[in-house]
Amino acid sequence: MDGEMSDAAKARKDLLWGMYSDLRTHARHAETLRSNVVNFMIVVASVLIAVIGNDGNVTRKDLPLGLALLLIGPLGLMFAASYTELYERNRRRAVQVRTALDEEFLAADGPTIASLLTVADDNHETGPLYRWSRRLTGSTRRFWYILPGLVTLAGVALVIVAW
Question: Most-buried pick from 6, 66, 84, 114 (CB within 10 A)?
Fold first, then answer.
């Protein structure tokens, strides 16, 4: 009976694993929503810019479209920031639950989930693609802020020109 878990321990392990899976699902959902909204914002902004630039001139009649563009950028930025925070909250909760699983059920029997991930990350981060892409882009989180920021800048520029 040494290697067997009690019913209570099995139930706790199942509960923690279920919580971990649920939290990771919520984090992925926040990522999906953020991606979809930013992509939709880019499509709408592209249409507005195409309509504004269709005649080859930016005139006062294009001001409402420029103002709409100026509104879309900050809204996209706020949404991206909000869902980045939601993602991080769920990711950090999942890490806490994974740590509990590691400490209670995996530490004595071999490698923990955290140690396996650390080895995998170390192997990945020593590769040339990782080093090159991270120097170029930094954190991928910045990408979700840059796009709405560029839409905002385009809106400002078009409003100034149309004014």
Answer: 66
Contact 159, 63 (CB under 8 A): yes
User: What are the φ/ψ torsions at residue 127 (nearest 5 degrees)?
Assistant: -75, 155
Output the pTM of the full model: 0.79
Q: Give me the pLDDT at residue 3, please.
A: 60
Q: Are 76 and 35 in contact (CB under 8 A)?
A: no
Which residues, 6 or more positions from 58, have their beta carbon under 8 angstroms from its beta carbon? Answer: 52, 66, 158, 161, 162
For residue 90, the model assigns a pLDDT of: 96
Rounded Cα distance, 27 and 14, in Å: 20
* Among 161, 157, 135, residue whose Cα is nearest residue 70: 157
